Amino acid sequence: MKKKPILKEQMNRQYYYLFGLSAILMLLAFCLESPQLLLDGMITILISPSQLFTDYMQIASVGSTLLNVAIMLLINIYSYKKLEIPVNGTVIGSLGMLAGFSFFGKNLFNSIPFMLGVWIYAKVTKQNYRNYVIVGLFGSALGPLVSFLAFGGALPSGFSILIAYVLGIFIGFILPQLSTQYLGFHQGFSLYNVGFTAGIVGMVVLGFLNAFGIEVETKTLANTESPLILYGLLIGLCLILLATSFYLHVQKKEKYHFKLLLKLSGRLPSDFVEMTNLATVTFNMSIMGFILLSYVLINGGQLNGPIVGSIIGAMSFGAFGNQVKNTVPVLVGIMIGCYLTGVDVASTSALVAAIFGTTLAPVSGYYGPLAGVIAGFVHITLVSHVVVMHGGLNLYNNGFAGGFVAAVLVPIFEIFEGIRQDINERKAEG
After folding, report:
1. CA 342 centroid distance within chain
2. How many Cα atoms within 13 Å fall on the side-chain side of residue 154?
């Protein structure tokens, strides 16, 4: 009984830390631009169709984009804290994805209906909302669907927002069941499970829209410049995580468990916080951030909203499936695939595909580095094609593609794994 207040106090400190990171982003936004410019930029963001890839820095400004990220984080962190959800790998991963995609696609307007739909599902099924709130947050991957229907000009202006919200609420309502069912499709070998689910839903909705003569075209609105502040933002975040790790290690006496971490395959569910500790996880996230940033720079890429957001999102899964050993082979495979197929490795779409292609890290972690290279290669050949299936209405396009890649490759790898085990058994016998 005495431990409960202590644990609650610890949880509160962790949430105050997350609030602090969000507050820094908000402060930075107000340092960069005047309140009027920030307000104008936020309005532009909120009424944007937000299809993949819509760089909020391109259509609005750097400051208003950072403000959008900060607002989204603060609201959802408060929600998690209010529900007394422990800060674990799932929480960190979901908040990282939220922050990342708030650079290019997620905003308060298009995220609300999914959260509301999940809340209604919990009430109708008489279950605790805290068990599903994270599904709602991930479900906002379909935010562009709401924004497109509301502001894309495809529906009568008087009804567009209402129709968009009703559909978003309905999708949020069915997401908890769908995401559970589709987990078996890729057997947990793609980290972005809700991304796959959202892709299926987006594909179905796109079919309905096309049937009624509503065309949805994929587009790329990405900043071609690379503001210096974006480098500072990423490097600063990595250094903060590194400093946090050292603080937890030295002051809180949390031991590093890197050997254990590198042995973990990352296959869902793999909560690295529960399996190791926060000191190990924050260090791992920092390293992941530096690796992904290095990948972009090595390949001559420019930092913009989608790329920065992708790095923040992917490095957050350093708490829930990604580590150096299972991630690097996938990146290598994607790079090889780009060069062999003639894909511009420095383009925004290719870099985002590489960064989020790390959703297949569990394949590498479970079957070995060669399997990871193969998975990365297959992923880059597929990802540009599946986006057409949902018209950019699903922000987690790589989660959608990764689900298919895992579903195809895992049975093949299982065959060879069985052969390998048979050979080893025969050697042991004689």
Report:
1. 27
2. 20
Checking if the pLDDT of 3 tops 70, the result is no
Spell out the residues 6+ positions from residue 162 whose beta carbon is closer than 8 angstroms to its own.
Answer: none
Average pLDDT, the chain: 93
Q: How many helices (H) and strands (E) does the chain have?
A: 20, 0
**Residue 80 to residue 394: CA distance in whole angstroms:** 24
Q: What whole-number distance in Å separates Cα of residue 56 and Cα of residue 308?
A: 12
Give Cα 237 to chain centroid, integer Å. Answer: 17
Indicate the domain borders of the chain: 228-420
Per-residue pLDDT of 333-356, as tens digits, reads 999 999 999 999 999 999 999 999
CA atoms within 13 A on the CB side of 161: 7
pLDDT 10s digits, 266-305: 999 899 999 999 999 999 999 999 999 999 999 999 999 9
How would you class 13 by CB atoms within 10 Å of its CB: exposed for 0-12, middle for 13-18, buried for 19 or more?
Answer: exposed
Q: Token digits for 202? A: 């987006």
Q: Specify the residue for token string 């468990």.
A: 257
Q: Could you tell me which of 280, 241, 278 has the C-alpha nearest to residue 263?
A: 280
Give the C-alpha separation, 146 to 6, whole Å: 42
Whether 185 shows a pLDDT value over 60: the answer reads yes
Count of C-beta atoms within a 10 Å radius of residue 412 = 12
